[in-house]
Every structure is written in C-alpha cells, then in structure tokens.
C-alpha cells in the first residue's frame, strides 16, 4: 500500500467517524498542509463545509454555529500561525462552554525545530483551554491504525460535549504528497477489520442529579428563609425557563433574569420575572433594604455590575449556585454551596417535594413594584435623535418571533440588560460572554445566521471595526442577517467609568475614536446600508431589513457624553420614585 492510499484511508476514517458522531458542520480555512483534511471533509456527503479565509474569523464563525445549534462544529486549518489565529475563539469557547473540534494540520516530526517554513510548536498550542489534546499518529491504513483513527475522532466529539462543553484539539502531522485519492474503494470504512474487532469505542453518559435525601436536605436548608431570591444568569438550555418560573410561582419568589438566561422571552409565565433589577440595584440604599435570606443562582454570573455589588454587600447571606456538571463561577468571593446537578431536573425534584416555603408576600411584591417603576421610566419618552437605549428598546419591539438576537459586549450587552423586557416572542439571546471580549463578534453573529435562523446582531462601532472581515462570509454565502450598528465613535462604556475624568489621556487610551464611514465598508461586502435618525425611523428600517435578503446594516450615530447623561437621568428618576415610595 503506497503513501497516498494510507493517507486517504486514514484521513477518511477520521472524518467519517466525526460525522457519525454527530458533527454536521465544518469550517475550513485554506492552506496546503491541511489538504488531506480539507479535501476529505469536502468530499464527505453528510457534512456541510464552510470556507472562511481568515482563521480568526473562521473560529468565531464556527462558534456562532455551535452556539445557535447547541452542537459541536469542526474547524480545519493549516500549520503555523494559521493555528495560532484560532486562539481567541478557543479561549472564548472554553469559558462560554461551546463545543468545538479543532483539527490543525502540522509538519511531520522531522520538519519540526529545523527551520522549516510554517513549522511552529503546535503541541498543546492552546495550553489548558482545550478539554482534551491529542497528537495524532502519522497516517497508516492497517486495521488497527484505522481503528485508532476512528477512536480518537469519536473521543474528540464526546469530549467536546461531555460535562461542560468546550473545545478539543487534535493535531495532525502530514507528510507530502498531500492530495488524497478518492477513486479508491471503501475509503469511508475500515474494510479489513474483523467482526470480532471492536473498531470504535462508544460512550454512555448518565444524568447528573441529587438523591432524594440530598433534595430533602436542600429544601430543609431553605425552609426557614422567608425572603428567598432566584437568580438566572447566562445559560442556553431551552427547557430551563418553563421549570424555573414554575418553581418561582410555587414558592412565590422573585426571579432576577439576566437577558442571556433565556427567561425573559418565551411563552412561559413571567409574573415573577424581574428584568429591570440592574436599574434599581444601582442605588446603595435600595440594595441595603433588599437583604434576602438566601440566593439560588442558576447559570453564570449575571451581566449586571449592580447585582455584583448587591451580592458582595450581602456576603453573609446563604448562597447556592447550581452548575449542570461542574465549575466554580463565583467572582464575588462569597461563601457558597455549589450544587452540581442538571438544573431542570433539580427544579422538578424540588417542586415534587411537599415542603413549600412560608414566604413573605411583601418581599415578592416589593420586587415587582420596583420592577414596574423601573420599566415605566425606561420605556417612556422619545428623543429627537435616537439614543442607544432607545435603539435596543425599538429593536426589541420589532424583532421577529422565532429569531435570535446576538449581542456584542461592552455597552451593547448592558443596554440589552436594561432595555430588553419580557416578551411572549421566542427570541434566543446569545453573546460571547465567556471572556467578554469585543473580538470576533461579527463572525459569531454571521455564523449563527448560517444556520438559517433569523439573526439580528447588535454591536458597537469598535467591535464592528475589530471584525469587519467577518462580513465576507455573509457576502460569500448570501446569508441573511440584520446588524444594528451603534456608533458612538469609540469605547462608549469607558465614559461611564472613572477613567472618563482624565481629560488629558481619555480619548487616546479609552475613547479611541476610529472616525470611519462604515457605509463604504458595508457596501464593499455587498451589504445594504441605512442610517436611522429616530426610534420610530429605526423600527421602520429594522422591519424592512427582515424582508431583505442578504446583509443589512442599520447604523445609529450617538454622542458618548450625551449617552451617559441620558442613562443617568433614567436611573436617577427610578431611584427617586422608589425611595419616595418608601419614605411615604
């Protein structure tokens, strides 16, 4: 058997097992050393290949698909710095628990550390961020080696999904020549394996749940608390909203719902959902008056910094954090009891107990009243020039049912936290909140749109500039996506921070205006550009964009200083009315 046949059969068995394990999308960045993988994936009849030239964009694009579909996506690139460009997305995937199968081509061992081109150290290139790393053997086509190839492929997909999902990394050394021969027979099989030979390992995972005794112990710990609080942070389980709101209804507890919790939108009951807590918890007096007896948090830490202050100031309060598998996401540093169990099963088990907390109804009523006061102020008034908060408010009014809102970091996610209110629409809200960076967000949003779902990307100008080449995929594949671009000519979030008082250095180091006419760049990528002047105008343009095929970008231009003033006036009005009600 010659080199080409060994290469072909080995690579084909890897690819076929990845597909059989449930991967249906692969994102490929062109290169020479990755030829065996790239061609073989493209040749396989049961996988969809996406070709993204820039590896950095490609990795975030893959993450957008994986987030949207909640399943692993494969990535293929050549050797050298091509693989290094995956790093930011792999970091994000690790922290945001997104399954990626990273397949990097490499020089064979004899070409490493000898000055060969595009040969860098790729063993454990990404450090501890991948859940699992394996250096694949050089291609062989014996029955044992084809079995080995399939087992490593199957294990990679399993490890990406197991427990907390995340990235895995397989590194493939390939010798030249690199072009497979697809005229060979039975390349997708291990033809010489006997029936007695187990060619592929299989995996069975059980559900993670507490015992009946543990459930009873937990309920007893909460039994004396008359002022409990449920907090729902970022998570993506579509089953969660229904069961958590049912539990809150039974126990008569308020539910603080982060916009990424998937609890603010949907057909479930929302009477106990408190979505405007970030606005009123900014006031220290209000935080002090809302001391709970216990807090149960599901999902990651909420976006709201005001909630972080609230938790830190009540560090003595019993706190429980529910993690579906494992993890330690408690940045406040408070004493915490971690519960490692499937959140949906846990809620159902608690509901099934006969014990019901004797709660203070005034506790729930107080949260609901403050929520209504906050919403009244946040949703009232219209400015002559659309503000950043109004942009989110208008977007939430017209965004289609059964669609996805992908949100950028910095001010974008914070305005969604403030102005995205409960809605019966089925709107999934996604963001790259693992490492919270502004890089790769365009590519991730476009990746989410590649699944065929209606996607709206809300993003600031710096983040948009940082990843404009992510628009190439939308142009190349004629993807439908609406982008709402909030342009305050720089890093608007820094205007809310103490750094803004340093007038000497603020603009150069924090404001960082780019002074770009984005219209030209959008048209370069074949997009339709529009600029909205008022909230009503924005809603009209958004509604029209959802009927338009391809890339639509609607820009609003705002002033950073005026934006700070507008937000603070809203927050001050909320605080004033709540405190007056208490004094009265």
Brief account:
This protein is α/β, with parallel strands linked by helices and 584 residues long.
Q: Ranges with pLDDT <50 over ≥5 residues? A: none
Give the strand line-up of the largest sheet. 2-1-3-4-6-5
The biggest beta sheet reads:
6 strands, parallel
CATH class of the largest domain equals Alpha Beta
Structural class: alpha/beta
Cα radius of gyration in angstroms: 26 Å
Q: What would CATH call the homologous superfamily of the largest domain?
A: Thiamin diphosphate (ThDP)-binding fold, Pyr/PP domains
* Helical proportion, percent range: 40-55%
What is the fold-level CATH name, i.e. the topology of the largest domain? Answer: Rossmann fold
Count of helical regions: 22
What's the structural blueprint in terms of helices and strands?
Layout: H1 3-20, E1 25-28, H2 35-43, E2 48-51, H3 55-69, E3 73-77, H4 81-84, H5 87-96, E4 100-106, E5 132-135, H6 143-161, E6 167-173, H7 212-223, E7 228-232, H8 240-251, E8 255-257, E9 273-274, H9 277-280, H10 284-289, E10 294-298, H11 305-313, E11 318-323, E12 337-340, H12 343-351, H13 361-378, H14 388-398, E13 403-407, H15 411-419, E14 427-431, H16 441-449, E15 454-460, H17 461-466, H18 471-477, E16 481-487, H19 506-511, H20 518-524, E17 528-531, H21 535-545, E18 551-557, H22 560-583
Helix pairs in contact: 1-2, 1-6, 3-5, 3-16, 8-12, 13-22, 14-15, 14-21
Domain Thiamine pyrophosphate enzyme N-terminal TPP-binding: 13-124
Catalytic activity: isochorismate + 2-oxoglutarate + H(+) = 5-enolpyruvoyl-6-hydroxy-2-succinyl-cyclohex-3-ene-1-carboxylate + CO2
Keywords: Magnesium, Manganese, Menaquinone biosynthesis, Metal-binding, Thiamine pyrophosphate, Transferase
């Amino acid at each position: 058997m010659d080199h080409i046949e060994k290469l072909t059969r080995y690579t084909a068995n890897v690819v076929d097992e990845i597909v059989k394990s449930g991967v249906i999308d692969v994102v490929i960045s062109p290169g020479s050393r990755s030829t065996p993988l790239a061609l073989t994936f493209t040749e396989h009849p049961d996988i969809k290949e996406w070709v993204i030239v820039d590896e950095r964009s490609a990795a975030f694009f893959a993450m957008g698909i994986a987030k949207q579909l909640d399943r692993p996506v494969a990535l293929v690139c050549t050797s050298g710095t091509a693989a290094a460009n995956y790093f930011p997305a792999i970091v994000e995937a690790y922290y945001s628990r997104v399954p990626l199968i990273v397949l990097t081509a490499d020089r064979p061992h004899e070409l490493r550390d000898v000055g060969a081109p595009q040969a860098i150290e790729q063993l454990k290139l990404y450090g501890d961020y991948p859940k699992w790393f394996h250096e694949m053997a050089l291609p062989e086509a014996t029955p044992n080696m084809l079995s080995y190839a399939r087992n490593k492929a199957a294990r990679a997909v399993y490890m990406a999904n197991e427990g907390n999902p995340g990235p895995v990394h397989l590194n493939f050394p390939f010798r030249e020549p690199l072009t497979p021969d697809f005229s060979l027979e039975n390349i997708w099989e291990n033809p010489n394996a006997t029936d007695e030979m187990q060619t592929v390992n299989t995996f069975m995972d059980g559900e993670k749940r507490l015992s009946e005794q543990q459930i009873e112990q937990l309920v007893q710990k909460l039994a004396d608390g008359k002022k409990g609080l449920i907090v729902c942070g970022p998570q993506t389980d579509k089953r969660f909203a229904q069961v958590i709101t049912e539990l809150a209804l039974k126990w008569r507890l308020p539910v603080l719902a982060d916009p990424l919790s998937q609890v603010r939108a949907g057909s479930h009951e929302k009477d106990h959902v408190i979505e405007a807590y970030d606005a009123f918890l900014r006031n220290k007096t209000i935080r002090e008056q809302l001391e709970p007896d216990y807090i149960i948090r599901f999902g990651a830490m909420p976006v709201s910094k005001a909630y972080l202050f609230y938790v830190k100031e009540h560090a003595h309060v019993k706190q429980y954090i529910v993690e579906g598998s494992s993890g330690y996401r408690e940045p406040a540093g408070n004493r915490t009891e971690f519960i490692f169990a499937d959140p949906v099963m846990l809620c159902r088990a608690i509901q099934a107990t006969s014990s019901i907390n004797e709660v203070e109804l005034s506790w729930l009523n107080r949260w609901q009243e403050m929520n209504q006061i906050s919403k009244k102020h946040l949703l009232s008034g219209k400015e002559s020039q659309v503000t950043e908060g109004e942009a989110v408010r208008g977007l939430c009014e017209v965004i289609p049912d059964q669609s996805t809102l992908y949100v950028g970091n910095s001010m974008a996610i914070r305005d969604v936290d403030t102005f995205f209110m409960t809605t019966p629409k089925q709107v999934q809200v996604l963001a790259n909140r693992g490492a919270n960076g502004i890089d790769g967000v365009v590519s991730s949003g476009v990746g989410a749109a590649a699944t065929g779902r209606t996607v709206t990307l809300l993003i600031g100008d710096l983040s948009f500039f940082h990843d404009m080449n992510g628009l190439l995929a939308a142009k190349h594949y004629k993807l439908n996506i609406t982008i709402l671009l909030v342009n305050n000519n720089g890093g608007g979030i820094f205007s809310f921070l103490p750094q803004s008082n340093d007038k000497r250095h603020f603009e150069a180091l924090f404001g960082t205006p780019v002074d770009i006419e984005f219209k030209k760049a959008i048209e370069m990528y074949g997009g339709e550009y529009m600029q909205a002047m008022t909230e009503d105008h924005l809603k009209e343009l958004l509604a029209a964009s959802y009927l338009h095929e391809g890339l639509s970008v609607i820009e609003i231009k705002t002033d950073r200083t005026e934006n700070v003033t507008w937000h603070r006036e809203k927050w001050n009005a909320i605080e004033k009315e709540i405190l007056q009600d208490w004094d009265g």
